[in-house]
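job 3f2a | input accepted
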Amino acid sequence: MSAKIPKSFWTLVRSYSASVHGPSATAGEHSGGTRMWKMLSFLVALPGVGVCFINAQLKEKEEHEHFHRPEFKPYEHLRLRTKKFPWGDGNHSLFHNPKVNALPDGYED
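job 3f2a | predicted structure (109 res):
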């Protein structure tokens, strides 16, 4: 069962598709839009990312100075080892950090 599309629909579609010639950033009254966005990217966005990076580094440094490792509590449901890890001695995770990550029987130091 095929429905016939009225001719007025195709006229409407054609009028919209032919109203703008060329890329939208350079067509008509809005020419120069590409240059504006390029300048905004370099003069606003990149310095903004730099400021956010510096802020994050300062906050991380402040957090690192006040770091206190929690006391080890040997909960039965944490740090379960049903089989050894396939690297090293089999007891340390792949990204093991001895200052932060505990083994099943406590911290290393």
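job 3f2a | The helical segments are 7-17, 33-65.
job 3f2a | closed
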